[in-house]
Amino acid sequence: MASIPRIVPWTSPQEYQNVYQWLYSDSPELRELGVKRVKAWSSRGKIPQSIVFTAAFVEASLRDEFSFGKIKVSNYELRLLYSMAFIRFVNGMIDPNQGKYAKSVASIAHKLDMPSWFVDLRHAGTHEHLPSLQVLRKGCQQALKWLEDKYWTAEKPVILAQIDEIRSLIIDYKKYSKDPDSNKKISTNNVLKKISNLITVEYIRDILVPVLLENGYLIPKGKKKRSSKSNITLSTKLIEIWFPMLQKFGYEWPTFYDELVQEMLEKMTSNDEEVYINFSDQLEIFQKSESSQPKNISSSYLFTL
């Protein structure tokens, strides 16, 4: 079965690069154009949070730059605008990295290599007096630089190498899962730990989920191993192989299940398939404790047809 490309809001890689250049341009007109294009993307569908945050900071700086125009913006309004951008930025980067047990915002920020004073600005804007305009302006500049370094200029060759390594690790996981050796659990856990170390939450949708849905991974290469319309029940063997991995990823990244389901729906609906999925029932299957294994999982949830 031919792979189906993931739908993205931008029409081409060139448009994506153009928007990056506009947002970081010295020209206010081009930066305004970049902000408007990001808003247009948002109306088409889900876009990476880093793009949204970049546009928010650029828009705040533009309002600041032209605050003495026809429509004047007060000092307090600018502080509110910058503070809201910082609150959404820090929360948006931190929250997806929270696991089952809550971690401190500072510890997650450190893991993301985010300056600690970004967290301080977020805290002040939420619980204390709004930071001064001078501090917020400096914070905006550094936040835009951080987003550029951590997202926009990320090395593509590194990402491609990660994809190849993840494919290799998932193949190892499947091999160890089928191995009757008594050390199977230790081996599979080591593989899953390596995958977790390779992936950050922003790349779940762009790297991990597409690999999982390639033929030979969650979708068996052999058609006889797949579910059919007459029998949508998965074999116990397939459940035993893949359930621990999916459960581990769901524990590691709370957004994993949503991203997986969304990608599967896109593949099925692009083939004009009718989809009938009860999301709450399906997600509940994967959120059960390790001691409670599901007896049956709908193929429409785990496999593309």
TrEMBL record:
GO molecular function, one term: endonuclease activity
GO cellular component assignments: Las1 complex; preribosome, large subunit precursor
GO biological process, one term: maturation of LSU-rRNA
InterPro entries recorded: Las1
Name listed for the protein in its UniProt record: 4557_t:CDS:1
